[in-house]
Write a structure and sequence with these properties.
Blueprint (H helix, E strand, L loop, with lengths): L1 H9 L8 E6 L9 H10 L4 E6 L2 H9 L5 E5 L7 E7 L3 E6 L7 H4 L3 E4 L5 H12 L6 E4 L3 H9 L3 E6 L3 H4 L5 E5 L8 E6 L5 H11 L3
Parallel strand pairs: 1-2, 1-3, 6-7, 6-8
Antiparallel strand pairs: 3-10, 4-10, 5-8, 5-9
Helix pairs in contact: 2-8
Length: about 210
């Protein structure tokens, strides 16, 4: 009951005065969300918003534990305690040195592969993509910096898997090329909240965040 009462009090009236704890994947706070969060601040100046970045599995746990009110992560989410709706188009792509061939076994064998942590469900998708093609890089490294990934790729050390929405911030850059992963790379982002707690006020916030930047 206490959590239900908090949810009722979270938003009060058209000008919202409550507290919204928002969690999102790190890259979405660089590519998808800056202008949208600014719009939300402009339209709802009395709403207090805390924004943090975490990996997808951590975001889900924080929602379930009521540490977050809303998360933006990959989905759709299938969980008895959570509900979701699509937020933004997203895809994963490979960032490769410009002078290497296509990502086949011979090309990847001498290269490093830079990818997401195991707390991120994107990692499962990447691991499956590699395994289904019998691709085995020289080593697989978790790297939580897309700028560092791009620098290592540009230097010819390896290949990186990055969200496509970051490409405008990375390219054009000499020494780099992009290889699409096709349908297997589709990784759309979703708004996620605790089931049965989508109020009209929270729906309004989702609509504000979902509008094109």
């Amino acid at each position: 009951m206490a959590q239900a009462e908090r949810s009722k009090q979270l938003f009060a009236g058209e000008q919202q005065h409550g507290l919204l704890n928002l969690g999102a994947l790190d890259f979405s706070l660089v590519s998808h969300l800056p202008a949208r969060i600014a719009r939300l601040r402009r339209l709802q100046p009395h709403l207090h918003i805390n924004v943090l970045s975490r990996d997808s599995l951590v975001l889900e746990r924080m929602l379930i534990d009521s540490d977050l009110d809303l998360a933006i992560t990959d989905g759709p989410i299938e969980h008895p305690l959570l509900a979701s709706q699509k937020a933004f188009d997203e895809r994963l792509v490979l960032l490769m040195p410009a002078d290497v061939g296509q990502p086949d076994a011979a090309t990847l064998a001498p290269l490093e592969f830079y990818t997401f942590s195991r707390e991120c469900s994107f990692r499962l998708k990447v691991d499956h993509w590699l395994a289904s093609r019998g691709l085995k890089p020289r080593m697989t490294l978790e790297m939580e910096s897309y700028a560092a990934m791009a620098a290592c790729v540009k230097d010819g050390c390896g290949v990186a898997c990055v969200p496509g929405s970051l490409l405008p911030l990375i390219l054009p850059a000499p020494g780099l090329k992009v290889v699409e992963m096709g349908e297997e790379g589709v990784s759309d982002l979703y708004f996620v909240w605790r089931r049965h707690q989508l109020s009209e006020e929270l729906q309004t916030i989702l609509e504000i965040l979902a509008r094109p930047a």
